[in-house]
């Protein structure tokens, strides 16, 4: 089970997996960080596909903690799963549960459309300010729980853009492993 979860350092737009996850915002019209990189690499059709989702409230196509899926157009992946992580507000605004929801629902949606592999960036850990070590624990625990419960995925890849993120995920994975042995 452990082998299915990989941690690598790199650029998620280059990932050769069935689905890559985008750390989007609720409006889903692109932005900076990994969102900007994914839109640039996927091409203009990605923005058109995002615009096709109806607004569930003013300027909200995807509420925080939820997911939407589009084709990946010019990327190597087949799909982009757009999720919206919580903005860090000190930890008293349901941020942990919302971040866990992003990882869980992204995996569920990937499985639903027949994906066998999925790659994640460190959702909420850039512009949205979520503390990286806390986010790393939540993401590793959520993914491992789903894999242990039989989610039919061959590979889940956590892609760290920075060294600090890579280290936080490595540490979270070894804590999780130690807790189980
Ligand atoms: N590949 C992998 N990870 C990346 C890449 C990339 N090409 N580019 C950036 N990252 C990393 C960042 O270093 C950070 O660790 O993704 C993580 C998430 O950072 P952000 O992209 O800032 O995402 P988030 O914190 O969830 O903020 C979302 O930023 O640009 C906007 O539209 C987006 O408004 C939304 C907000």
Structure description:
It contains 5 helices and 6 strands. It has helices at residues 33-42, 45-51, 95-112, 132-148, 163-180; strands at 5-9, 19-23, 67-71, 79-83, 117-120, 155-160. The chain has a 6-stranded mixed β-sheet, with helices on both faces. Adenosine-5-diphosphoribose binds at residues 11-13, 23-25, 31-37, 85, 121-128, 159, 161-162, 165.
Which descriptors apply to this entry?
single chain; 181 residues; alpha/beta; Leucine Aminopeptidase, subunit E, domain 1; six-stranded mixed beta sheet; 5 helices; binds adenosine-5-diphosphoribose
Please name the CATH topology: Leucine Aminopeptidase, subunit E, domain 1
Give the N-to-C terminal Cα separation: 13 Å
Strand order of the largest sheet: 1-6-5-2-4-3
Order of helical and strand elements: EEHHEEHEHEH
What does the radius of gyration come to? 15 Å
CATH superfamily: Leucine Aminopeptidase, subunit E, domain 1
The largest sheet, given as strand count, sense and whether it forms a barrel, is: 6 strands, mixed
Shape: globular
Total DSSP helices = 5
